[in-house]
Design a protein that fits this description.
- This protein is α+β, with helices and mostly antiparallel strands.
- It has four helices and three strands, in the order αβααββα.
């Protein structure tokens, strides 16, 4: 799963949101590293809807413009949970390797009395 897709699904995990709300949530979740343009977002939302991961929750007319809210489906929540588990396993493996000196045993937390 690509990072923008992961962040879009994450943005919709708590509650339904309209496009601009998703864009802002993704930017916040990524600490500004991922900034989606509307065309990119709506293309992704269309693809995710075709895959059954998100769906339209409702539509509202605000100042004469239609605002569409999207929500995560049960399949979308399951896909997001599976991706979280995969990323967690990968991060744990990377962390373990970082604690291990080249050719040596893994380093754990400092033992009392050891300097």
């Amino acid at each position: 799963m690509q990072e923008p897709t992961f962040l879009i699904l994450t943005a919709l995990a708590a509650e339904p949101a309209h496009g601009y709300g998703v864009i802002r949530a993704v930017e916040t979740l990524s600490n500004g590293d991922v900034v989606l343009r509307p065309g990119t977002l709506y293309g992704a939302l269309d693809r995710l809807a075709e895959q059954g991961l998100v769906e339209v929750d409702r539509e509202e007319a605000i100042d004469g413009r239609l605002r569409r809210y999207y929500r995560l489906t049960d399949s979308g929540a399951a896909a997001l949970a599976a991706q979280v588990a995969r990323l967690r396993r990968n991060a744990d493996a990377a962390e373990a390797r970082l604690r291990r000196p080249a050719g040596g045993p893994a380093l754990g937390p400092a033992q009392p009395g050891m300097a």
